[in-house]
Design a protein that fits this description.
InterPro entries: MCP, MCP_dom_sf, MCP_transmembrane. GO terms for molecular function: 3'-phosphoadenosine 5'-phosphosulfate transmembrane transporter activity; 5'-adenylyl sulfate transmembrane transporter activity. Solcar repeats lie at residues 14-102, 115-208, 217-308. The chain crosses the membrane at residues 179-201. The structure is a single chain. The protein has helices at residues 3-13, 15-33, 35-45, 58-69, 71-74, 78-105, 114-152, 163-173, 184-211, 219-249, 264-279, 284-311. The protein is an all-alpha fold. The chain has a single domain, classed as Mitochondrial carrier domain (Mitochondrial carrier fold), CATH 1.50.40. Helix 3 runs antiparallel to helix 12 (284-311) and helix 9 packs antiparallel against helix 10.
Length: 312
């Protein structure tokens, strides 16, 4: 093995770098698997109140996507999503592990408390949003624009707007650099507590399984733990996830989508008042179909890759 290879191996095996690599790969892989559910969720979230709605339910929405845009429509925006998810997931896991290490260094020989894991997840969630938010905004814009173009052209294949093109349009027409971060506050309010709940709950369940006298070596147990923790976090935080998508498209086409909110509080009260309790959970089933298998796969891939890097 050459000196360069030795140094590269040593660099990757460092715990923080291993978390970056394992987190990025597991995030991109898991999101690709559930890409149709992700796009369906966004389309459902971006429908306002009223009975004349094009998308009704998760599986009918996926069927309509396929009918309007073909199989490519099911994965529209996935390349961009992976470009966003790789650093997003990598930063999330790496910061989570780093904060845990800092906390443990202050209390040697002791275990992490649940609230300390929550804190580590919260910081990891905030860091990942700040790092990748413009790409998340662009993906939401491309999803809704592509669906609108398909509707206008009666299902004919249309060229979807590009990433650079969308970034330039937002920058030029909506207020410059700060427009690329419009909606970041509600996004952070939704993502950070979700990551905190998901990460902390999964680790507690995993550690209990590892210390149990029963046999939990089957990967299905970790899949189940990841699915359960992401489901709990997803349901508790969902109205804020819906809100962040509304903020991201509020200024599209001069605000014709009808989402004009003065603040997070005004937005939430408006949604509950005008669309009812279920309106705040519009697209929840599509979201759960996405995040539950996605995080289950992501956790198993992450743990497996981290173990493989350690043994490398």
């Amino acid at each position: 093995m050459s000196d360069l290879q030795t140094r590269l191996k040593k660099f990757i095996k460092k715990d923080s770098n291993a978390s970056l690599v394992a987190g990025g790969i597991s995030g991109a892989l898991s999101r690709t698997v559930v890409s149709p559910f992700e796009r369906a969720k966004i389309l459902l979230q971006l429908q306002g109140p009223g009975s004349n709605q094009a998308y009704r339910g998760m599986f009918p929405t996926i069927a309509k996507m396929y009918a309007d845009e073909g199989w490519r429509g099911l994965f529209r925006g996935n390349t961009l999503n992976c470009l966003r998810i790789f650093p997003y997931s990598a930063v999330q896991y790496a910061v989570f592990e780093k904060v845990k290490a800092v906390i443990l260094a202050r209390k040697p020989g002791q275990d992490l408390l649940f609230w300390e894991r929550l804190l580590a997840g919260l910081v990891g969630g905030i860091a990942s949003v700040v790092t990748t938010y413009p790409l998340d905004l662009v993906r939401a814009r491309i999803t809704i624009k592509t669906a609108s173009l398909s509707k206008l052209n009666k299902g004919k294949t249309v060229r979807p707007p590009g990433v650079v093109e969308t970034l330039k349009e937002v920058y030029r027409t909506e207020g410059g650099f700060t427009a690329l971060y419009r909606g970041m506050v509600p996004t952070t309010l939704g993502v950070a507590p979700y990551v905190a709940i998901n990460f902390a709950l999964y680790e507690v369940i995993r550690d209990r399984m590892n210390s149990s006298t029963s046999d939990y070596s089957n990967p299905l147990w970790k899949l189940s733990a990841g699915a359960f923790s992401s489901c709990v976090g997803g349901i508790l935080i969902y109205p804020l996830d819906l809100l962040r998508k509304r903020y991201q498209v509020a200024n599209m086409a001069g605000g014709e989508l009808g989402f004009q909110y003065r603040s997070v509080t005004h937005a939430l009260t408006s949604i509950f008042r005008e669309e009812g309790f279920l309106g705040a959970y519009k697209g929840l089933s599509a979201n759960l179909y996405k995040i539950v298998p996605s995080m289950a796969i992501s956790w198993v891939c992450y743990d497996t890759l981290k173990d493989a890097i350690r043994k490398w």
